[in-house]
Specification:
The protein has 2 domains: 139 residues, 3-Layer(aba) Sandwich (Rossmann fold), CATH 3.40.50.2300; 152 residues, Response regulator (Rossmann fold, 3-Layer(aba) Sandwich), CATH 3.40.50. It is elongated. Helix 6 links the parallel strand 6 and strand 7. The longest helix is centred in the first third of the chain and has 40 residues. With 346 residues, the chain is α/β, with parallel strands linked by helices. It is 45% helix and 18% strand.
Amino acid sequence: MTAVRNQWPAISKAVVLSALLFALSAVLLALCFPAEAQQAKKIPRIGYVALRNTPTPTVPDPAAGAFREGLRELGYIEGKNIFVEYRYAEGKLDRIPGLVAELVRLNIDVLVSPNGTAIHAAKQASQTIPIVMVTTTDPVAAGFVDSLARPVKNITGLTRLTQELAGKRLELLNEIVPNVLQVGVLRNAKITTDLANSFKDYETAAQVLKIQLQSLEVRGPSPDFAAAFQAATKGHVSALLTVSDGLILSYPKQIAEMAIKYRLPSMFEQEVYVEAGGLASYSSIESEIYRRAATYVDKILKGAKPADLPVEQPTKFELVINLKAAKQIGLTIPQTVLYQADKVIK
């Protein structure tokens, strides 16, 4: 009996030690679950707003595609370590503020948009959510940032210098169609700010080249597009320019086909139109711009403030020529223009 009683202290110590280890394990396990839950909540959520139509397999959104590619190159995989909420306004400008407000309510970490109305709406909706713009307008003149070098506040990103290239496009069009006298400018009649200035930029360049411009305003794809091209024919227009916005960008193939139908040499602000069958484009390289937008998102997610990230401007530009389109309208592209082309579609 004495021997048995002497074993109790040892047994008690073992039991107490086991209980302590169990309790400690339970505490550590309990601490792990909140940490894992917290980590899951930290997966960043990005908002992306565009005016154009929702992409389809036949009419994709090359800008969003390049942005996704840029994210992948930086190690982000959608649905795994990043979420991207895409919102498209189907060419309806008045839908943009509502889409932005919806994303703000989702507590997104960064908003990315190529649309001026979306940038304005986001700026008014939040002074804290970082905004990465990809703008075709002058961001200082538009009031998005105080300066390119020091954006201040919560907006930064890239400018495509689309308006600044207006004169160059008109010059190239004048080389493609020597002595052109009348050029039609297809544009969205609903745009009253930002992109409306693009027409003025073309007007300035046209005065220098002694070319007359005819504004071809549309409010929707059909029957407005057909009416615009008919008006171009009545106005003796001999070439076509477009001012890109969400509406015009949503129908590149339809616009390119109508330009062919009416035998109008066409110059566009983005390559997507030429790939859809248009004649020529001169612009910054869209895929490169949107891949660069992903680097801004990456820097912001890693702690950088938009105010400390200078607005970036493109340094490379492309002239793209579609020889198939030229053949369809019976046009021979001058060799001097072909020498300047960065890409030729045959």
